[in-house]
Design a protein that fits this description.
The complex is a heterotrimer of chains A (67), B (454) and C (201). With 67 residues, chain A is of the alpha+beta class. Chain A is 22% helix and 27% strand. Chain A has one domain: 2-Layer Sandwich (Alpha-Beta Plaits), CATH 3.30.70.20. Chain A contains two helices and four strands; from the N terminus they run E-H-E-E-H-E. In chain A, a hairpin with a 5-residue loop joins strand 2 and strand 3. Chain A is globular. Chain B has a five-stranded mixed sheet, sandwiched between helices. A five-stranded mixed sheet of chain B has the order 7-6-10-8-9. Chain B is α/β, with parallel strands linked by helices and 454 residues long. Chain B folds into three domains: 195 residues, Rossmann fold, CATH 3.40.50.11540; 97 residues, Ubiquitin-like (UB roll) (Roll), CATH 3.10.20; 113 residues, Up-down Bundle (de novo design (two linked rop proteins)). The longest helix of chain B has 17 residues. Chain C contains seven helices and no strands. The chains are: A alpha+beta (67), B alpha/beta (454), C mainly alpha (201). At the A-B interface, loops of A face helix 14 of B.
Chain lengths: 67, 454, 201
């Protein structure tokens, strides 16, 4: 039971704000699009993860509870 | 429309369940079965035991989707039965895969089986609203409209059937693309974070089934699960329609039991030989010419060396461990005198152009992958092209809203494995292919605007 | 120049906060275009452009609220509470204030939908957000007609600067939109770019 980051690839336009706010879990590929780590968000990064979700201009990132 | 249709010899007993094959396609060649002939052959549609009885029978039959994903039909129908309000029921006949012809053949020859299945699915879902999603073809459209009208006049159908045309796109038949089209927009795949029935609109779901699946449903309702299981394997029961591309260039749609040997289907000489992956050898002999490799599962499937394929059955249990799959039943026997890399590059280019253009990794990655493949298919390719290809195929997998990048990568990676010897020949500036003619069907043109997706 | 008495303080406050609101709204529109075009401000990360756009819009709302409240409270002119949101309901200069009321309504819609963005469809949010391009010019016209301030001196200078900045940003956005490849052509465009490059290999 943890929280995972989910990216909507259709909504994503490659702004890159998410990778700036959460570099531990999100990196940018050679075309400017985020590679989101498919692992539970560690407790210490929950706040940064919420900021990354809020900081996306396209609202393409979400933090979901995954069993 | 179905000029190149060949069918195995008939074995239909009038008035009783079809013994042996074929089941879906009758013995009358390519002549369409009209309503009267359909009723004479199969009798009126009945679903003994009502909705619950049908669900039980379908579950016992073990019918899985024939659109490529092989999802258990009983589970989908059960989910649809529980959905409130009742979902829209859609029969998917779009068949975006250029190498597949089974769905349009089925719709042309035996539309009433499909329409029966559509009514059964609607009954199970508790829905009065169905859609038949079909390719853009005036003759087929006219024939289907006529069949629907004929049934309506006879008062046969409880649920109304609407015909919706699909654009001529590879992804038009993708489940979420179909739903986008039904919702009134272009047939673009959608991001689906939540599993379950796709949403047509907030609060309205859709039950989508391939048209061949619906046809099987119509027969299971009449003849039962035991009859259905009389063909096929224990884990993969029943029959399926396969589109065969034989080595002499002919194409045919045949109905085969699951688990049938690929050698028999493609006329391959099944004598076991040394299984050399990617051997640029004369190839395995077949009734239609020597074959070097077999494409199993269409353009999102995988190449297998001919010798290996000749020993395999058409069943996921045997194919999945080798990276291949049954998919929608496309089998292509590549003649030994073709260049497998060139064929793959042509298809890779098509797959790249057919990207919906929605997800960055897809519309950036697939074109670069295609360009690299074209480069590898040429003389003395730059070694960086191979390294780039490895990186890009890893970069696009799993990062699109639909499985287009994943499937395309599966196809291309299998080509790199199977045609490795050919790649070495190209590095020396030569090519093993002596016949430059294209083998696999690839449509011309590329989409440019949303109009092309509508 | 007459001194500022308690009765004219409100009037001056309303005019001053009006000018500031217009400045802030201009900044919001320009920053919004920057976000859309993935443009950057020198020395600032990408997330800061989005952050500034959002935070300045909230600041603009605060100044807009003071601008409206002081105008209503001022006894010198008759502007009822309703006139703040209902167009042309003011006794004083109904046309010019009415345009301001419409602009305020649109700004309110933008702010409220953006706060509730996660709960609405993308298409609906986008459609309402486009109304920003209507809210801004209405605010400008409201400024020009509502008081004589905008016709001379410093305020006129500010107004002209706002209009120029917005015009430049909009022209930038339109130029890009004209060149932009439609979604269905993106893969083909990438393919021809890559093939052309490889041809030089």
């Amino acid at each position: 039971m943890g929280k995972r980051l989910r990216l909507d690839p259709v909504a994503c336009a490659g702004h890159g704000a998410c990778a700036e706010l959460l570099p531990e879990l999100i990196t940018i590929d050679e075309w400017g699009y985020p590679i989101v780590a498919d692992q539970p968000v560690p407790h210490g990064l929950q706040r940064e993860a919420r900021r990354a979700v809020a900081g996306c201009p396209a609202l393409a990132l979400a933090l979901t509870r995954v069993a | 429309m179905t000029d190149s249709l060949t069918l195995p010899p008939p074995a239909l007993a009038a008035g009783g369940p079809p013994r042996g094959l074929p089941r879906l396609l009758p013995d009358a060649g390519t002549v369409p079965v009209d309503l009267r002939a359909h009723l004479a052959m199969h009798g009126p549609l009945r679903a003994p035991g009502g909705r619950d009885g049908l669900l039980r029978e379908v579950a016992a039959a073990g019918l899985t989707g024939r659109g490529g994903a092989a999802f258990p039909v009983a589970r989908k129908l059960a989910a649809a039965a529980e959905a409130r309000p009742a979902p829209v029921v859609a029969g998917n006949g779009a068949e975006g895969e250029p190498a597949s012809g089974k769905d349009r053949s089925l719709l042309w020859i035996a539309p009433h089986l499909v329409l029966d299945g559509l009514q059964l699915a609607a009954g199970a879902a508790g829905s009065r609203s169905t859609v038949l999603y079909v390719p853009r073809n005036e003759r087929l459209h006219g024939r289907l409209a006529g069949a629907i009208a004929e049934r309506a006049a006879a008062g046969m159908d409880a649920a109304r059937v609407e015909l919706v045309t699909a654009p001529d796109r590879f992804l038009a038949g993708e489940e979420s693309a179909l739903v986008s089209r039904l919702a009134g927009g272009p047939a673009l795949p959608a991001y689906r974070p939540v599993r379950g029935l796709p949403r047509l609109a907030p609060g309205r779901a859709a039950l989508v089934q391939n048209v061949e699946t619906l046809a099987h449903l119509a027969l299971i309702a009449r003849y039962g699960a035991a009859w259905f299981r009389a063909a096929g394997t224990g884990a993969e029961p029943g029959t399926m329609l396969a589109t065969l591309h034989l080595a002499d260039g002919r194409t045919s749609v045949v109905e085969v039991p699951l688990g049938a040997g690929l050698a028999g289907l493609l006329g391959l000489d099944a004598r076991p030989g040394p299984a050399e992956a990617g051997a640029a050898a004369p190839g395995v002999p077949s009734a239609f010419g020597p074959v070097q490799a077999v494409l199993v599962g269409g353009y999102h499937g995988a190449w297998l060396p001919a010798a290996e394929a000749a020993a395999l059955p058409l069943a996921n249990a045997a194919l999945r461990p080798l990276g291949a799959m049954v998919g929608a039943g496309v089998l292509a026997a590549l003649p030994a005198d073709r260049c497998g890399l060139a064929e793959t590059a042509r298809v890779a280019r098509y797959l790249a152009l057919e990207s919906a253009g929605q997800c960055g990794p897809c519309f950036n990655g697939l074109p670069r992958i295609a360009a690299a493949m074209e480069h590898l298919a040429g003389p003395r390719p730059d070694p960086r092209a191979r390294a780039d290809l490895e990186r890009w195929t890893g970069l696009v997998t799993g990062r699109g809203a639909c499985h287009h990048p994943d499937g395309s990568v599966r196809f291309i990676r299998s080509a790199l494995r199977v045609f490795a010897a050919e790649a070495r020949v190209h590095e020396q500036g030569r090519c093993g292919g002596t016949d430059p003619r294209p083998f696999l069907p690839v449509p011309a043109g590329a989409p440019a605007t949303d109009e092309d997706w509508s | 120049m007459t001194g500022i008495t308690s009765s004219t303080a409100l009037w001056y406050a309303s005019r001053a906060t009006g000018v500031v609101t217009l400045l802030l709204l201009t900044a919001v529109v320009v920053l919004g275009i920057l976000v859309n075009r993935q443009g950057r401000l020198p020395g600032l990360p990408a997330f800061a452009v989005t952050g500034l756009h959002r935070n300045i819009s909230l600041l603009a709302v605060a100044f807009l609220a003071i601008h409206v409240v002081t105008a209503i409270a001022d006894p010198y002119v008759t502007i009822g509470l309703a006139a703040a949101v209902l167009p042309f309901a003011s006794a004083y200069k109904p046309l010019w204030l009415g345009l301001g009321a419409i602009s305020l309504d649109l700004v309110a819609a933008l702010i409220l939908t953006s706060l509730a963005r996660a709960r609405m469809s993308r298409r609906a949010w986008r459609a309402i957000h486009w109304l920003g391009y209507a809210a801004w010019p209405l605010a400008v016209v409201h400024s020009i007609g509502s008081s004589a301030d905008a016709r001379n001196g410093l305020v006129l200078g500010v107004l002209v600067a706002c209009v120029l900045a917005t015009a430049a940003a909009v022209a930038w956005r339109l130029a890009h939109a004209a060149r932009e490849v439609p979604r269905a052509g993106r893969a083909a465009a990438a393919l021809s770019r890559v093939s052309a490059r490889k041809a030089g290999l």
